[in-house]
Amino acid sequence: MNYIPHTETETREMLKIIGASSVDELFKHIPASLKPKSFDIPEGRSEFEVVEYLKSLSRKNAVGLTGFVGAGFYDHYIPQAVDALAGRSEFYTAYTPYQPECSQGWLQAIYEYQSVICELTGLDVSNASLYDGGTALYEAAMMAVRLTGRKKIIVDSGVSLIYRTMLYTYTSNLSIEFVETPVAHGQSCREDIYKCLDEKTAAVIVQNPNFFGAVDDFSDICEKVHSKGALAIASVYPVSLGMLKSPQEMGFDIATGEGQSLGIPLSFGGPYLGFIAVKKEHMRQMPGRIVGATVDQDNRRGFVLTLQAREQHIRRERATSNICSNEALCALRALIYATLLGKRGFQELAELNYQKAEFAKSTLEKIKGVKVMRSSPTFNEFTVCLPMNSDELVSKMINKGFACGFPLGRFYKGMDNYLLVAVTEKRTKEEILNFAKSLEESLCS
Amino acid sequence: MLIPDNLFYTKDHEWAKIEGNNATIGITDFAQSALGDITFIDLPKAGAAVAQFKFCATVESVKAASDIYAPLSGKVIKANAELNAKPEMVNRSAYDQGWLAVIEIADLSEKSKLMIAPQYKEYVQGLAK
Questions:
Q1: ipTM confidence
Q2: What long-range pairs does A183-187 form, CB within 8 A, spacing at least 24?
Q3: pLDDT (tens digit, 9 = 90+) per residue, A323-343?
Q4: Could you tell me if B37 lies within 8 Å of chain A, comparing CB atoms?
Q5: A149 contact B CB<8A
Q6: Contact residues, chain B, for A149 at CB < 8 Å
Q7: Least CB-CB distance to B42: which of A149, A284, A314?
Q8: Is any Cβ of chain B less than 8 angstroms from the Cβ of A281?
Q9: pLDDT (tens digit, 9 = 90+) per residue, B46-89?
Q10: Whole-structure pTM value
């Protein structure tokens, strides 16, 4: 298939009008050093060959493992209705809802998604969604820089290393100073945060539960942060909000997070879902699309994209962000998921996750040599200290049919024997008991 | 079209009222009328340094979001916080209640780069043609 729409005759005609003898001549002002020497692309293959090749790649995956891995991305049950509804062509093939007169369905769905995010976080305004948890956190950091006119950001090291790396990568060409503060006994070190906190600080960023699974009440930190005129930003796990204190209750200005756990399947590379919610006073600095509700001239309820003067197509280089899209289908899935569960269901889901993780904790700590870290309360994920290298244990457990957790040594120095274990509502009592048994065997062998 | 005699004007339709070392700044009647209903104003922050003819605020109307440029260089002493709740005051009273900010003038000689009322009037009439 040829993706170039011009015929040779058309190309020649255009070149003649421009006054160039060839396409190469047209682009001759591009220095040779900037031109690719070779694209190094192999010859084309047939559909059949490509399918076979991809199948052979997929066979390299360990499939059918019972999952106890979380680390920011969780194995929750997705009701069939999510696929059925989100797969409807009215949604699945729809284009950007810039024209409200022919996009009311989509706009209403996004408006309701925003309402769900506001309900969960307790904050006033949500946007139409962002790419993922990491980009959402970056956008929050940049909001704080714009709102305060300051350039120093304190990041708690309990924030996922993936997110921290994304923050540093995105801002590598900006003069923003990041200071990382340590985690001790699972919790953010107040003293270290307060020592770094000053009148140059734009924001303090924390995560709840943090990467080690520890739950914290950050109300005290938010208060101190505000006393210095800085903003408090939290990256949160949405399912945990079914039972934990909300970011609004703790006093956060901005809450962000990864929305994958809301009806989006685990996959390598996404697409996932970033969410961001802020206090009303900060909404003019929000990135991305926002859908608002209004009434038409006959007083009928309707929905439109609103506050667009923040955005790139109007504000150009002074836009709040270069985000000019959203993760609409994933946001729709999150909306359908949350709506199916309802308020009670969401609370029960959170409770179930918590209880199962507590059961797993008490089961695992009966194993000789295994120590469950209990210095902080947790939600559905916790840290375990092992008598062996956790990366090695992970390999052994794959052979026994378990994805047993995330080896913390990969992200944190000196934690080679620590394993991060997540237990969602999907894990049965039997699976947890079998998991403990296999873990015990792996430690002995 | 209101063009008060006692003010100085820019080509971008900002005005400055110079009183001693301070200047009150805003947008002209022509500007507010061209923008239409104003919905939000991102005011300069007190303490911020502004430079002549450089970006200092944003005015959003139902038609557009427009950058506002400072008529003179200096330091912002205060901004008109009442506009946060009532941005439409700029439409109603561009030269009086609709002022945007007061700046402490850094260099009074910059005044020579601004237009006086008759010049601005001629300039606006030229634009209309």
A1: 0.74
A2: A183/A156, A183/A157, A183/A158, A183/A210, A183/A212, A183/A214, A185/A375, A185/A376, A186/A158, A186/A210, A186/A212, A186/A213, A186/A214, A186/A373, A186/A375, A186/A376, A186/A383, A187/A158, A187/A214, A187/A216, A187/A375, A187/A376
A3: 877 899 999 999 999 999 999
A4: no
A5: yes
A6: 45, 48
A7: A284
A8: no
A9: 999 999 999 999 999 987 888 999 999 999 999 999 999 999 99
A10: 0.88
